[in-house]
Structure formats: structure tokens, C-alpha cells
Amino acid sequence: MDISNLTPSSQEAKFLHIPYEERWKALKPIIIPLYLEARGSNGKGLTISQIADFMKCHYQFHGAEKKEIVAAIGKRPSHEFSTSHVKLANGRALDKKQMKRYLSDQIRHQSIDPILPGV
Known about the structure:
There is one protein chain. The chain has 119 residues and is mainly α. The chain is built from four helices and no strands.
């Protein structure tokens, strides 16, 4: 996503006429794409401080602090899967060390079918 699409096109688009508490709601459609979709010069997503700098520079929104942005839009979704929230059928949490031991044991004791020539 190109960041230039998110720059304000007029003074009205900066929402300066709205009180600070209500500006969060008005600016949320700008902050969310910055956080989730925009890419910096390194090809990675923008950091919270880069978003705060963008908001200060283009929207004169100086209240964009890290904890306020995270509270307003939530955390960036992870593309990796985690076993930290997996529950077993009996309701217990998954023990990662026990799972690793089990998988290692299964791999170690796996029988390999012999390869016969000409078959």
C-alpha cells in the first residue's frame, strides 16, 4: 500500500475541527491501514513510532502515542501459529515439552520399509 494515498487532501480531511477525544474515531480509518497494510522503505510494516510521526506530520495529531494507538486498533495479527492457546479435549493446556518429546520419539521409532531392487 502506498502511504501517499493516506495523506490528507485538504484541511477538512485533517479533522482539526473535531475535539481530540472524537478525532480517534475519525482518524481510525487512516491509522488502521497504516498499521496493517502500509510498508516502509525496508519492505516491513510500519512501526508504532513511524505511524505516530506520520500522524503528527500530516494530520497534526500529536496524541498518537504507542499505547494509545495499540489500544485504539489492537495488535497486528500474526501470520504464525502458536501452540500457547491450544487446549486438549479434557480442557488442559498443551505441554510443549511433552509434545516435542512425543514427536521426537515417534520419529526415532518410525519403521522404514526396505527398498527392494526391481520393484
